[in-house]
Specification:
alpha/beta; 4-stranded parallel beta sheet
């Protein structure tokens, strides 16, 4: 059997397995399947369930995941330690995600800036689907270089 004869269902099963094998919070390496050929790209881009796990708080990446996940539930996992240049980007990405609070299912934020944004942001639409929430505000002294006063609030 040639790989070109695989059904879309089989391709999506393979893509899900590949996505799930990249659970490192800094890796979206599975997205490379969207660059193999037009058939694979159409299959992957059209499958909302592939775009529901957000491990990056890159603003453009978050926009793409929100768009491609359509109205599916979202899982956010962000573990990276920010630096001065990351703070604004993280806040902007969190604002995009919090606008989708009605879709959030699992949230794990082990990043002071992201967790603080989640904690202090009003959830206008509520978050009725959340089944797990982990906000970690660890080592505040490590973040004292972000902005004056950020650790004193």
């Amino acid at each position: 059997m040639s790989i070109s004869t695989l059904s879309v269902d089989v391709l999506l099963c393979i893509f899900r397995a590949l996505r799930d094998s990249h659970v490192d919070a800094r890796s979206n390496g599975w997205i490379a399947v969207t660059h193999v050929c037009q058939e694979w790209r159409l299959a992957a881009v059209g499958a909302a369930e592939l775009w529901t796990q957000i491990y990056s708080l890159n603003v453009e990446c978050v926009r793409v995941f929100i768009l491609r996940s359509k109205q599916a539930h979202l899982d956010i996992r962000y573990l990276q330690v920010p630096n001065l240049t990351d703070a604004r980007r993280i806040e902007d990405s969190m604002d995009l995600l919090l606008a989708q609070s009605h879709r959030l299912r699992h949230v794990e934020l082990r990043n002071f800036v992201a967790a603080r944004r989640f904690y202090t942001h009003p959830l206008a639409q509520g978050a009725p689907l959340i089944s797990s929430l982990h906000l970690e505000l660890f080592s505040l002294a490590a973040y004292s270089n972000l902005r004056p006063g950020i650790c004193r609030q």
